[in-house]
Amino acid sequence: MWMRMLLAVPILFIPNMIHLSFETGIPGLNIANILFLLLVTALMMGGRKYRPLQPTGPITHALLLLFLALVVGFVIAQATRPMSFMDDFTYIKNLIFYPLLYFVYRRCGQDLKGTRQLIIFVMVVAAVAGLEAIREGLDYGFGNYSESRRASGPFGVDYSSANRAGVFYAMFMPMFVAMALFFRKQKFWRLAAIGGVGIMAVAIMATYSRQSYLIALVGVTLLLVRRNVLLAALIGLMVVPAVSLLPESVTQRVAETEQQDAVGAQELDVSTASRFDIWTGAVQMWSQHPLGVGVNRFKQYIGDYVPRYAGYDAHSIYFLMLAECGPIGLFALFYLLWRLLRMGIGFARSVPASDAEGKALSLGFVLVVISTALGNVYGSPFFEGAVMANFWALCGLMEHYFSLKKQAAAAPSASQAAPADAAALGARFPLAARIAPGRYRADRP
Question: Is the pLDDT of residue 417 over 60?
Answer without folding.
Answer: no
